[in-house]
Amino acid sequence: MLSSNLLSSTNVTFSKPSSRYPLNASFLDPNLVNRAPSPRITRCHSPALQIPSLSINHGFPISQISESRSDFGRNSGHPCGFSSRFSSHKPGAAAGTPGEISPDGEIETPKPNKDFKLAVVFGLWYFQNIVFNIYNKKVLNIFPYPWLLASFQLFCGAIWMFVLWSLKIQPCPKINKSFIVALLGPALFHTIGHISACVSFSKVAVSFTHVIKSAEPVFTVVFSSFLGDSYPLNVWLSILPIVFGCSLAAITEVSFNFGGLWGAMISNVGFVLRNIYSKKSLQSFKEVNGLNLYGWITIISLLYLFPVAIFVEGSQWIAGYHKAIETIGQSSTFYLWVIVSGIFYHLYNQSSYEALDDISPLTFSVGNTMKRVVVIIASVLVFRNPVRPLNALGSAIAIFGTFLYSQATAKKPKVEGGEKKN
Question: What pTM value is reported for the model?
Answer without folding.
Answer: 0.69
